[in-house]
Design brief:
Length: about 550
């Protein structure tokens, strides 16, 4: 196509000059052409441009600087047989001076009123051509028609000849209904501070699917505590024979051999025994979730934000129990089937600057469950009370793990949402979580409150899906579940040790001949009445183990 200039002239009416309509056509694809509109004209100009009929072409009308081609502002566009329309941006605003009239579109033309140009400005037309492959057409359609698509779905639609009408028909009549809400609940797993306030904590440290990280400071540390607006604080202490210990709200996060310095080429050392408020990095907390990435530290004395490089988790073998009172979890080998690396940069190309390989991992085995490996660890549901100026009123100590290769990780709790629907209710209605959060009370002692039972009474809406649960932690709306302690040999021994009382288990005793004693008015020692019997230890007595 070539630039065609129609009739040009000027009519005088008093002191005003109205320029006659000029007709232009779009240039060939990949080129541009300037409109012959003088920047000295101070009144609007009307032009006429044919509609683009080729399905693979786009023509845009824009204004730019005649000096260097910058300051490009899109005015209007036509593509794939569509009438000219105003483009989003500056000239889409009300009273922008641009008006499009396609009353002549039956003839394949539209009139466009353009506002006067300023100094060193010009209007130009640019044309582009692009042919979509079948896969690209399918991808574009599915991006517009769904909440997101997969490559196999693109391939299937493309193989059908991009029969969009049939696809819509199948969605309405043949596909099972799904919801974005359900998909989100099934797949959401973000880092979350104090997650019991919103949902359930994901797997505990020794449980399958628990998540672990290599970086000492987490984006969770940069968050404000929601109820109080307080933030966590970082403090560096020098411990003889150990190194420089990094604490977040008095709980160890890592140990470095040298005194840390501010990042980004600044060799200024961090103050020791000084509480820095942990903050975000330019408003993006997640940009701190990697080894070597910047973590913002607010220095109240200097009234300034500094940045420090996020160190790797490193716990020396000689760390005293006064600093770390619990065991280090023996994790499987990194990148094994039992402990694969997740959230790697190649999986998230846009975020590869911050998502580093081998810095996040998932425990994918049940080998640690049911062992005493995690005994004595702090609760991941109830924060420990904490009372220091500016910090949240509760804090969670960090649990550490180590692979056979000697790579240290920190347990990284996430938010997990459990399905509790009419068709698939929780086995105990959330009773276990009720018990796990027993002791949380709103107020100053802990930042949260006990999770309520999620069971409801039977009614006409749920009666078809109502199920009877025999789970020991089952709860009901009016009564929280009681903790059940199994009277096993191990538990009874623990009770004896804690209480200092003699407590023993009697089992397999024949009580069939032991009945109510009328002479004393009491049950026999192992009788079936409601009264209890008491026993005492007798020394130097031989027992033949018969009743």
């Amino acid at each position: 196509m070539k630039l065609v200039i129609g009739a040009v002239g000027a009519l005088l009416f008093g002191s005003s000059i109205i320029h006659a309509q000029t007709t232009y056509t779009c240039p060939t694809a990949g080129t541009s052409a300037s409109l012959s509109i003088d920047s000295s004209i101070t009144t609007p100009t009307t032009i006429r441009i044919p509609v683009i009929t080729n399905s693979n072409e786009l023509c845009i009308l824009l204004r730019h600087s005649t000096i260097d081609g910058s300051k490009r502002a899109h005015v209007a566009r036509s593509y794939s047989g569509r009438d000219w329309e105003q483009s989003a941006g500056l000239f889409a605003k009300v009273n922008s001076g641009v008006a499009v009239n396609c009353a002549n579109s039956a003839a394949g033309e539209c009139d466009i009123i353009l506002p006067p140009l300023g100094p060193d400005q010009a209007y130009i037309l640019e044309s582009y051509e692009h042919t979509l492959s079948a896969d690209e057409e399918a991808s574009r359609f599915l991006e517009q028609a769904t909440f997101g698509t997969k490559l196999n779905e693109v391939a299937a639609l493309s193989a059908s000849g991009n029969n969009f009408n049939q696809w819509v028909h199948n969605q309405i009549y043949n596909e099972q209904q799904s919801t974005l809400r359900k998909f989100y609940r099934q797949n959401t797993n973000p880092k979350f501070e104090f997650p019991y306030n919103t949902g359930a904590v994901s797997s505990k440290p020794c449980e399958m699917h628990s998540r672990w990280r290599r970086y000492a400071i987490s984006s969770r540390d940069c968050l404000q505590e929601r109820k109080t607006g307080r933030q966590k604080h970082l403090e560096i202490k020098s411990v003889s024979g150990v190194g420089y210990v990094w604490y977040v709200d008095d709980h160890v996060r890592t140990v470095t051999s040298s005194r840390p310095v501010y990042g980004w080429g600044n060799n200024l050392q961090l103050k020791l025994n000084y509480r820095y408020r942990v903050g975000s990095t330019n408003g993006h907390n997640w940009r701190s979730d990697c080894v070597g990435c910047a973590v913002g530290l607010w220095d109240a004395q200097a009234n300034k934000v500094y940045y420090v490089n996020n160190p790797a988790v490193s716990i020396p073998s000689n760390i005293p129990t006064s600093i770390l009172p619990w065991n280090i979890v023996p994790l499987p080998s990194l990148n094994s089937e039992s402990f694969p690396s997740i959230d790697n940069g190649e999986d998230w190309p846009v975020f590869e600057t911050w998502f580093h390989a081998n810095e996040n991992a998932l425990l994918n085995t049940t080998a640690l469950e049911g062992t005493n490996t995690c005994d004595g660890f702090p609760s991941v549901y109830i924060p420990l009370p904490y009372d220091k100026s500016g910090s949240p009123i509760g804090t969670f100590p960090t649990v550490f793990g180590r692979t056979p290769e000697g790579i240290d990780f920190a347990y990284d709790p996430h938010l997990a949402l459990h399905e509790n629907t009419v068709d698939n209710p929780l086995e105990d209605g959330g009773g276990q979580l009720c018990m796990e959060t027993d002791g949380l009370t709103p107020g100053q002692s802990t930042p949260g409150e006990q999770v309520a039972c999620q069971n409801v009474h039977r009614d006409f809406l749920n009666e078809e899906g109502c199920r009877l649960s025999y789970h020991t932690s089952t709860c009901n709306p009016e009564e929280l579940p009681m903790r059940v302690i199994e009277l096993s040999e191990e538990n009874v021994a623990g009770i004896r040790s804690l209480s200092g009382n003699d407590l023993y288990i009697t089992k397999d005793m024949d009580t069939s001949g032991l009945v109510f004693d009328a002479s004393t008015g009491k049950d026999a020692p192992c009788g079936s009445g409601e009264q209890s019997s008491r026993w005492m230890m007798v020394d130097d007595v031989t027992c033949d183990n018969t009743a």
